[in-house]
Here is the input.
Amino acid sequence: MAAQTEESDCAREQTKAEQDVDQVRQRAARDQKRLDSGAVSSPKDLENLQREIASLAKRQGDLEDVVLEVMERRESAQERVAELTERVSAVQSKINDATARRDAAFEEIDGEEATVTKEREVVAASVPADLLKLYDKLRAQQGGVGAAKLYARTCQGCRQELAITELSEIRSAAPDTVVRCENCRRILVRTAESGL
Here is the structure.
């Protein structure tokens, strides 16, 4: 935006400087025409007219130098605008690519969520209501994990190794008894790898 504004300002400045040069040229041409026509007869007026023509020629040269300087600045600003526009396009392309990948990942996640939700509903239908209620309560309290695997005498929820007395109680409990970790209170899932 700043580069575009600078280029626009230079364009306006160049137009004004070119108009100033044109005005000086026209005035010098009028004066030269008057001089050449012989309409000025007084030597003093003739001398003043010649001085004014010389002065206008110098002024025209100075203004043309200003036009050239402004044109150089404008060209530099145009190059900067082109460079920045190219960089913005490259960044926008990266943004578009990242957005497309993000949207694709969201679609995939949404699909997985729908599949897992259906699977959960099927499994939840086979779990006793009181156990499901306990699991949901623990899940809400424990950051989304209501049950944890008991692996090598360690609760995988809190990563704490269970005490020997606790392991003995779990070992002697019936297979369908709900056992919980003494540390994090999650439901423990017993497997062959539990270390019992």
